[in-house]
Fold these 2 entries.
Entry 1:
Amino acid sequence: MKLFPSFLLVILWSIASCSCQKKSNTGEEPTPPPVVEPSVGKVSVLLTTANRQKEFYKEQTDLKLIKNPNASYSITLKPTERFQTIYGFGAAITGSTCYNLMQMSPADRKAFLTETFSETEGFGQNFVRISIGCSDFSLSEYTLCDTKGIEHFALTKEETQYVIPILKEILAINPKVQIIGSPWTPPRWMKVNNLTDLQPHNQWTSGQLNPAHYQDYALYFAKWLQAMKDNSLNVNAITIQNEPLNRGNSASMYMGWDEQLAFIKNALGKTLRNKGFAEVKIYLFDHNYNYDNKPSQQQYPLHIYKDADASQYVAGAAYHNYGGNPNELSNIHNQYPNKELIFTESSIGAWNDGRNLERRLTEDMQELGIKTLNNHCKAVIVWNLMLDEHGAPNREGGCKTCFGAVDIQTSDYKTMRRNSHYYVIGHLSAVIKQGATRIGVEKTTDDNVQCTAFENPDGSLACVLLNKKKEATYLTLSTGKHYFSYEVPANSVVSFLIPKI
């Protein structure tokens, strides 16, 4: 029999003595190591930090989804609480955007559009807004019927050489992309100075729609929808007037709720149905939460919803955020929950330090992503997808200080800088898919951490979250059946995609 050396026996005796002494001092058994449940899946993470150290960064850390949670959580998703379904997210494909895209090489343009719109190779943006005729970001001021007489309707060079080719490239990449159209002004020969004098108003700015031309203008919409269809583009929705309470844009028209009601009821609704466009959704208003502080125009859409003859043609209402509070969305929804809400425009620019991602990233995600969606919006669309470094091309009398979601350098039409709106829309569209349903969220964090959550058609869960704090925040997120933990960096936005288990 082989004996231990004496010095080794002394060491073993000492270790045993220490263990016994520790037990006798505490009167308890040593704490066993925690039991870690096995992973049942992996969570995909997309991260952008406002300091640009990580931009659409796909987290490589093995973020495990753990079964059988028995603890308190920072955020708990509640799939049984269900709200609106989602159409999608995107930006405006203006004439200016299309012009800049057309200056790129075909290969560079395809790469950018693939990154933006592809569901498999990019961020999957899938809802775009275009103008019917010109906007303040067009190459000229025009309508599609500048010669008096609706028989003179025709698409222009801006549509045929810029907008339509770009839309076709986008749809080739993602056929699920939906299109909404909005006019900034009708043909000038349809406008009058006011509804009392009814004098001609041959101006691009302001004026009102002459009731004598309601049917002509209804046909204008129908002819535009048909022209797009003839170019293999199916338009999903329209608004009747961009910013109807704004008389001052480079192309504009005032249209109070009573005028919009009469136009829908007496001309537009029936005309679109008779011309085969009954499935095209009509959205009211298309302007600010505060109705530009006009007392007579408060809660604009509700006045039209109350008229059954007009309301039957209307899907819902669209909003911008240049004034007021997004809580107005819920105010409208709660009174007419069967009517839809979409968000159709927001811009960054010199007035809000638009190229400063340190300031804009979480602020814009809060306003455009979290608050619009949590107040029942089914789509979120920002303004120009792409402008050059000068905010151009643009029109006199329109916005001269707007920036695009992406800026491109005119020196090479290749170098790009992505601004906050591109990150906001990308983080939403990357994980919240068309047909997703918003679900409930219970949050124990303070307001520096905000989120929205959805269940996708395939059963996966999406959560988009922002951290406004100046330091990283460690969060534990539960789905009710599983949980995971993640340290969200300071001043950042993160998108989680949680697999169906």
Note: The longest helix spans residues 6-26.
Entry 2:
Amino acid sequence: MIKKLRIKLIATSMVSLFLVLFVIGGIVGIINHKKIVADADRILDILEENDGTFPRMEPREKTDDPHGMSAEIPYESRYFSVLYDANGTIILTDTSKIASVDTETAVNYASKVWNKKSEEGFQDNYRYRMYSSNGNVRIIFLDCRRQLNNFHNFLLTTFSVSGVGLLSVFILMLSLSARIVKPFSDNYEKQKRFITDAGHELKTPLTIIDADAEILEMDFGENEWLQDIQAQTSRLADLTNALVMLSRMEEGVSRDTKIEFPLSDIVEEVCHTFQAPAKVHQINLDNKIEPLISMNGDEKAIRGLITILLDNAVKYTNENGTLSLALEKKKNRIYLSVFNTTESISKEQISHLFDQFYRTDASRNSQTGGYGLGLSIAAATVESHHGKISAETKDEKSLKITVVFPT
């Protein structure tokens, strides 16, 4: 349990940090990209207004540019344009303001844009604008290679630094998480030790009380007070044993107790023992058990698991209801499921079924007995065998508990 808590702590921290860095890097990247597009579009606006060229600016006008552009922009910008007539025939190509593009290359770029019928966008590293000009169509391409390269380098640097940061935090979390969960680990170990020690300490006085009650019964005969003492002593002894068993299951199954055993035979045997209680409660019990399934684990604990699931189902199945058990093997998984109809069970109750001391129907406690520890022990048993247990209801009138074991 503590190991899983530590893993969850590290995983949650890493996922949270990753999402924060990813969102920050993404937002900054989007802002930078939008700025590149906006700057390029402002230049294209000027070129569009002046038929594909920059206007001449007198020295005194250079500080009053209505577009807010630097006077150096005409000298820094690299662009070319292609002019089409109304029939789609190229009538003019201007590559005088760029050295890396010849006429043939300019025509190829223009043809791709012409076929796309898109008024503006990016073609490779060029931001283009297509517009009507005196009955013709002009396509202007602005070279944004430097800006885009800077943008890509920025993204690469951002995510590289973020990756190094993630790795550093991961290493720190590996070393510090043990200290963070140590108080929980200590409390958990003390709790388990307390339950185990208290269980052993309670067994002696309970045994003595029960023996004394039997002696009194022999001396004074049967009476309701002695019967109450014996009944409550037995109930307390069962509760103590259940708590000790739960504590042991949460510690896991040791390798010494793991053996390969015929699961199909054990399930069928346990299921057979519940035929009589089911008949008494007028419950239709059937099973579908795939033969020759075996598993490696604690045979006694698995037998107890099946008993708990069937006992819980018999207790809460409504009169003339249905109870069914299925065991099958699919690929590398063993599936054990117990289905039963019931009077009522909400989806909110489903989420608490495996909590300690939880009961779905408090008004039926006197009828069903138990302590609300059965399914907790079942969940601990499954977890100790590296399996998964889940519960579901589709109509709030039935319950299906499914256990999945690896093979």
Note: The chain has a mean pLDDT of 83.
